[in-house]
Amino acid sequence: MSNGIHVELAVSACEGCPVAALSSSTVVEELRVDSADDRVEFVADDPPDDPPSGLDLVEFAGRTHGRYEIDCERAATDGGVAVDAAGGIAVDATGDVSEADAAETESSPDGDDGICRGCSCGGLPSAFANFPNSPRHTEMVDGELRVSFVLTGHEELRAIVDECEAAGLDVELRRLCVDRGRDSDADDRGGTVVPVDIASVTDRQAEIATVAAEKGYFDGGGASAAEVAAEFDLAKSTVSEHLRAVTADVFSQLFGDGDGT
Fold first, then answer.
1. Are the C-beta atoms of 34 and 125 separated by less than 8 Å?
2. Which domains does the chain have, with CATH numbers?
3. In this protein, which residues make up the domain named HTH bat-type (predicted)?
4. What's the pTM?
5. pLDDT (tens digit, 9 = 90+) per residue, 46-73?
């Protein structure tokens, strides 16, 4: 049995998303994306005093159970063409639309219903339907959709990110936990799980490290630092320094005392 990783990703939601709006004032938990029916279902800790329009809400045992239908589709991830629910807008696999059509598909409520149309939220069903693993937990926090997975490694993480991006969703890594394995001093409930804090990694370092990982730089026989540098039109020494900083930061947390020091 191989050791896995636990990741938490932040997935974009449009400004018109009613659940995102609700989360600014009410804790939203147990959020689920129904990819078969293009529906978002959720549970809120407290009944909202002034809920956004477009939500079907039911109170039970002091908690609010709700849902809303996503009234649009995004480009299919297999290169097909998607048409919005009204049958008016054709979108190719790159997400390109005409200038006139783009004006009609901006992120905004649909009339008085408050339902997302032609926006990033429409990509949720197609992305969730094609994830290699089901999320362990999904929640909406202050307008940000956070999705957690337990994965076998980088390849599955890359596949999830690819599905999000293909569906028109922005996605960022928020948290990564690595299991260093069980040792003789660990109790019987599990191994030594180390949270990897990437807050100190700059956006540029993360960008270079991502391309390096995709090209197999960290694997035997993969791309060299020079080949990675060529992707960014940078000097080999510059890329090597960026990658050294990232690996030093991550490795000190994984194999040091766990806090990056």
1. yes
2. 5-173 (no CATH), 197-255 (1.10.10)
3. 202-250
4. 0.61
5. 888 888 877 889 999 888 999 988 865 4
